[in-house]
Amino acid sequence: MAAFIVLPFLVLLLASSSLSVNIDFTYNGFKSATNLSLDGYAGITSNGVLQLTNDTSKVTGHAFFSSPIQMLRNTRSMTPTTISFSTIFVFDIITARKVGGHGLAFAVAPTKTLRGGCCRYLGLLNSSNNGNSSNHVFAIEFDTIPKSSMLVDIHENEVGVDINSIVPNISITTSYYANNSKTVNFKLESGQPIQTWINYDGVAKILNVTVAPFSVGKPSRPLISLPIDLSPILKKYMYVGFSSSTGEISSSHYILGWSFRANGMARSLDLSHLPLPPQPMKDSPTSKFSRIKIGVISSIAMLLLVALAFFVSWHLRQRAKLAETLEDWELDYPHRFAYKDLYKATKGFKETELLGSGGFGLVYKGTLPCSGEEVAVKKISSNSRQGVREFVAEVVCLGRMRHRNLVQLQGWCKRNEELLLVYELMPNGSLDTFLFEGEKCGLLSWDQRFKILKGVALGLLYLHEEWEQVVVHRDIKSSNVLLDADMNGRLGDFGLARLYDRGKNPHTTLMVGTFGYIAPEVSRTGKPMASSDVFAYGILLLEVACGRRPIQHDAPMEQLLLKDWVRECKMRGQILEAVDPKLGESYVKEEVDLVLKLGLVCSQSIPEVRPTMRQVIQYLNRDDSLADDVALVFSEADFLDLASLNSYLSSIATVSSSSLSGGRCERVR
Ligand SMILES: *[C@@H]1O[C@H](CO)[C@@H](O)[C@H](O)[C@H]1NC(C)=O
Ligand SMILES: *[C@@H]1O[C@H](CO)[C@@H](O)[C@H](O)[C@H]1NC(C)=O
Ligand SMILES: *[C@@H]1O[C@H](CO)[C@@H](O)[C@H](O)[C@H]1NC(C)=O
Ligand SMILES: *[C@@H]1O[C@H](CO)[C@@H](O)[C@H](O)[C@H]1NC(C)=O
Ligand SMILES: *[C@@H]1O[C@H](CO)[C@@H](O)[C@H](O)[C@H]1NC(C)=O
Ligand SMILES: *[C@@H]1O[C@H](CO)[C@@H](O)[C@H](O)[C@H]1NC(C)=O
Ligand SMILES: *[C@@H]1O[C@H](CO)[C@@H](O)[C@H](O)[C@H]1NC(C)=O
């Protein structure tokens, strides 16, 4: 009879136990996790961390195991019993600012789609159902924010047990027992992973909750050991999972790993293989400050580095720029300047230091760094390498010339293809600026002009006759006549034309000189002679007396060529008509007359009939009755017709004229 009664009870018992599915799962990370039901802001990060909420404020997130779990046995009896269950999980609360919120909870709920509110409700409950026993919500909460005074919550860093309410039945400051008696507090928001063990003994009706920092391991004594009968709270089938929310202030709530087992102890997590949550850019004031500090320091360092690199490369470039490679022979010639010094003297050949451009290159003003002496530096580009040595030899040779009507050559410098000649600086510049840009420099009086012309003549005489060798200037013109402080005329660039010529090409003689000053035989034969300097000097005499250029392009046709015009005036017996009108009446008639006539005599077409420079000086000094000679020579030359001139020119073209081809300067040292 008893057996009859017991049997159906046993059958019932067996049937009910077969219904209780033994759920047992472990997530060591959530990469490709299945059977999870997520909502709200919950998601799984790329490295497999279950994220319940991100840093967005006032949001909720849920993650529940998708299958229900039978929590109650003997539901048909008067006293249903709760199963035992166990769970282990590791969570991590990452807070970008100093404080975050609000927390998370392990929840046992009748639905996996909880519609709890944000903020203090932790996504579990809401204002309308909070505290209602019909909720059937049981949760272990990890709360980081104090609840408002209305909903009393003492701890802001607490572990609590919630029963149908977000006001926990019990809450304890987050801590763990070390050595069974001593509690060690720790922060939920430390950013470090925290491990939690929740065990419920359905028979003894005891809930144990243990939390500890990930690194500590399981403490032997649980933090909370609460005798509680869950059977009135839970329903038969319940869902387990996590709920979380943020408020005005927020945190990212992460679950790194989770294991659960109904009717047994949950498996331990493989701690070493759990994924780690993404670390935020810490943006607390201190870290921001230090970031700024680091940024500032590193950018200053960077700047300094760049500046240093720039300086070094500039320095190296500068050194390379100023470097000279000396050939052995260069050391043999005296008066050599270092390129570096000339570079410094002319401020790096700056445009503002440019004095002018001569026939052979640009002329810069400079101040020598050591002596402070003012010089003019002429930069000549030679196109031929092989000529350079000879060039230097001759330049040095010319440097030995000393005459007060020559611009003194002080030295030279060779760098690559470039030759630099250093002259003494003539403070008053060149004659042509005075003659043709008188408004700029002031008018040259007749006395000054006469003195200048005499000086140039003396300088030219020195070149032609008084130095060791004959030197033909080849480029006599007003712009090559320089004026020193006392307004003495001094010849510059002497010998350069010939040197330049030679430097360029030793085999062909190029015609050098300046249009308007070139004697006809030079343009014919290309052979420069002292008499062709006399021709150019004659043109210079006319130029200075008339204050006009040898070829005046804007003049009326008959006045185009200065020489022709003066001659025409002479023929008409009105030679003084040609005088520079700027002089007005303030000139010495006899001297002007002499200069103009001498100019015509010197610029005669046939070289043989031109006077020598010595004679020219005698005329200028009116030593004796040479004025008649001048007239005589002049009249002879004056009536040469063009035909006889041409026949003469063709005759000398074939003659090798070696007599006055210019002095050679081989013996240098
Ligand atoms: C997930 O559910 C499927 C059936 O829906 C089951 O086969 C599987 O074992 C479950 N996974 C876990 C981890 O429980
Ligand atoms: C939080 O997640 C939402 C949706 O996934 C996204 O739109 C938002 O940008 C995220 N916010 C932060 C701060 O990560
Ligand atoms: C509160 O939660 C309950 C249960 O999830 C739901 O039915 C109700 O609509 C929610 N109320 C509000 C205001 O969200
Ligand atoms: C609790 O909830 C039930 C159903 O949701 C409702 O009928 C009851 O009035 C609520 N009780 C309180 C005290 O709010
Ligand atoms: C909550 O705790 C109070 C004592 O603080 C106790 O009287 C009450 O029964 C507890 N509630 C539950 C559901 O255990
Ligand atoms: C626990 O006790 C051991 C000795 O029994 C001691 O070495 C250890 O420091 C103690 N730990 C703490 C956290 O007090
Ligand atoms: C709960 O903790 C108490 C005290 O440490 C212990 O005696 C008991 O065995 C624990 N129960 C479970 C299920 O862990």
TrEMBL record:
<dbReference type="Pfam" id="PF00139">
    <property type="entry name" value="Lectin_legB"/>
</dbReference>
<comment type="similarity">
    <text>In the C-terminal section; belongs to the protein kinase superfamily. Ser/Thr protein kinase family.</text>
</comment>
<feature type="binding site">
    <location>
        <position position="379"/>
    </location>
    <ligand>
        <name>ATP</name>
    </ligand>
</feature>
<keyword id="KW-0812">Transmembrane</keyword>
<dbReference type="InterPro" id="IPR017441">
    <property type="entry name" value="Protein_kinase_ATP_BS"/>
</dbReference>
<keyword id="KW-0472">Membrane</keyword>
<dbReference type="InterPro" id="IPR001220">
    <property type="entry name" value="Legume_lectin_dom"/>
</dbReference>
<dbReference type="GO" id="GO:0005886">
    <property type="term" value="C:plasma membrane"/>
</dbReference>
<keyword id="KW-0418">Kinase</keyword>
<dbReference type="GO" id="GO:0004674">
    <property type="term" value="F:protein serine/threonine kinase activity"/>
</dbReference>
<dbReference type="InterPro" id="IPR011009">
    <property type="entry name" value="Kinase-like_dom_sf"/>
</dbReference>
<keyword id="KW-0732">Signal</keyword>
<feature type="signal peptide">
    <location>
        <begin position="1"/>
        <end position="20"/>
    </location>
</feature>
<keyword id="KW-1133">Transmembrane helix</keyword>
<keyword id="KW-0723">Serine/threonine-protein kinase</keyword>
<dbReference type="GO" id="GO:0005524">
    <property type="term" value="F:ATP binding"/>
</dbReference>
<keyword id="KW-1003">Cell membrane</keyword>
<comment type="similarity">
    <text>In the N-terminal section; belongs to the leguminous lectin family.</text>
</comment>
<dbReference type="GO" id="GO:0030246">
    <property type="term" value="F:carbohydrate binding"/>
</dbReference>
<dbReference type="Pfam" id="PF00069">
    <property type="entry name" value="Pkinase"/>
</dbReference>
<feature type="domain" description="Protein kinase">
    <location>
        <begin position="349"/>
        <end position="626"/>
    </location>
</feature>
<dbReference type="InterPro" id="IPR013320">
    <property type="entry name" value="ConA-like_dom_sf"/>
</dbReference>
<dbReference type="InterPro" id="IPR050528">
    <property type="entry name" value="L-type_Lectin-RKs"/>
</dbReference>
<dbReference type="InterPro" id="IPR008271">
    <property type="entry name" value="Ser/Thr_kinase_AS"/>
</dbReference>
<protein>
    <recommendedName>
        <fullName>non-specific serine/threonine protein kinase</fullName>
        <ecNumber>2.7.11.1</ecNumber>
    </recommendedName>
</protein>
<keyword id="KW-0547">Nucleotide-binding</keyword>
<keyword id="KW-0067">ATP-binding</keyword>
<dbReference type="InterPro" id="IPR000719">
    <property type="entry name" value="Prot_kinase_dom"/>
</dbReference>
<feature type="transmembrane region" description="Helical">
    <location>
        <begin position="294"/>
        <end position="316"/>
    </location>
</feature>
<keyword id="KW-0808">Transferase</keyword>
<keyword id="KW-0430">Lectin</keyword>
